[in-house]
Amino acid sequence: MLDVIKVRIPPTLYLATAAFLLTILLSVPPAIYAATRQNTAADYITRFCSLLGVCMPSFWMALLLILLFSIYLGWLPALGYTSPQDSVAGFLKTIFMPMVVLATHSAAKVIRFIRSDVLEQLHQDYVRTAQAKGMPRRWILWRHVLKNSFITTTTVLAFEIGHLLGGSTIIETVFAWPGISYLMLQSIYARDYPVVQGVVLI
């Protein structure tokens, strides 16, 4: 049982790591940009995209990506997994769509937390004091606001690490990604209870 689980861990780690890095890129810069430009077009667009990412089911986004990149354009394989040891190009092609789906859903949640915290920091007394002293806005943002907001950002992203490492059963099933969640689903179908218990424990 443990040997079977160990075989499934590397694909899960690859997918979780790639999705986490993409989550940071998709969430932190837009959240900061939207918070510093509250009630502008950029803020409204960011909030709308965040709401759309939270509300859209992950399996629906996965099917849309398959329809676009695999059926219409023919750029990426719809299903399967290629190990990076076998082919780096094949690995990047197979990981792209599941990574985007997982990262988009996670980034949509993270954006809301970071934006709210940065807005709260911008209305603190120390920001008004720094502005009264004539400090540049960019200096206040990078030296004080983001430094204090980093605690919330780190906490929220840490929760997402656990979520991504746990994997998404739906995503791994749709893309036939041989990760831990996909293994658990197969074990449930086969009524292989020891493997299910081992996966849940991990």
Fold and architecture overview:
The chain has about 200 residues and is mainly α. About 80% of the residues lie in helices and about 0% in strands. The protein contains nine helices and no strands.
Chain-wise SSE layout:
Elements: H1 2-36, H2 41-55, H3 58-72, H4 88-122, H5 125-132, H6 137-166, H7 169-174, H8 180-190, H9 193-201
Helix pairs in contact: 1-2, 1-4, 1-6, 2-4, 3-4, 4-6, 8-9
Low-confidence stretches: none
Element string (H = helix, E = strand): HHHHHHHHH
The largest β sheet comes out as: none
Rg to the nearest angstrom? 20 Å
Mean pLDDT across all amino acids: 83
The shape is: elongated
Number of helices: 9
What level of helicity do the residues show?
Answer: over 70%
Please give the number of β-strands. Answer: 0
Share of β-strand residues: under 5%
Kindly, what is the distance between the CA atoms of the first and last residues, rounded to a whole number of angstroms? 12 Å
* Class derived from helix and strand content: mainly alpha
